[in-house]
Specification:
204 residues, alpha+beta, 5-stranded mixed β-sheet, 21% strand, globular
């Protein structure tokens, strides 16, 4: 299935397709830590080869887009939610204070924003794209606040061939004026009351 999906992605080079296909198949056989040194013991690529492949990167959103097209119904909604991840230490990239929904307070750690596609008819969901939230210093340098970062990520994640859905579901944090004035707000949110009612139906 992985090879079939990769064959549908435009402009993907054969070495990249081979690496991703191998990675998906051999990933589950790894025992212990998921770092390049240990992964090279279980996979058919050397440590340096994997480092080089990871530096080149891969557009997983394009892969997920093809997967969703092939396996989902036509009744879809988009869902975005940032999640707090505990991380100690001082030198981890992106380390900052983020909101933890579980503890109902800001905590030191990392944050990962996930945009998913919910298949309402089949009662399941597929990951479309994700991004690590930059820390406040990186956002200040980019002249962004959190909402700006979320909006830019959502817009950049939409496939060029058209949106999967006209509905975007988010939690209460996004019930702010800035989100409705943004390109995401004008495209998805509609009027304030309808968006709020949709949110209550989904999250409560």
């Amino acid at each position: 299935m992985v090879k079939a999906i990769l064959s549908q992605i435009d402009n993907i080079k054969k070495p990249v397709a081979k690496f991703i296909s191998t990675l998906c198949l051999q990933w589950w056989s790894i025992s212990g830590k998921y770092n390049f040194t240990n992964m090279s013991r279980y996979m058919s690529y050397s440590e340096q080869a994997m480092r080089n492949a990871y530096k080149r990167g891969f557009e997983f959103s394009a892969f997920n887009w093809e997967l969703i097209k092939d396996h989902c119904s036509d009744e879809l909604i988009l869902a975005f939610d940032p999640s707090y991840i505990f991380k100690s230490g001082k030198h981890t990239e992106g380390l900052d204070y983020f909101w933890s929904g579980q503890d109902q307070r800001t905590k030191k750690g990392l944050e990962f924003g996930c945009l998913a596609v919910v298949d309402v008819k089949n009662e399941t969901a597929f990951h479309l794209n994700g991004i690590q939230t930059p820390d406040k210093h990186a956002r200040k340098k980019a002249k962004q606040n959190l909402i700006d970062h979320y909006v830019d990520f959502i817009l950049s994640s939409l496939p060029a061939s058209g949106s999967l859905s006209t509905y975007l579901t988010v939690d209460g944090y996004f019930m702010k004026k800035r989100i409705y004035q943004s390109p995401v707000g004008s495209r998805y949110a509609g009027d304030h009351q309808n968006a709020k009612r949709c949110q209550l139906e989904i999250f409560i």
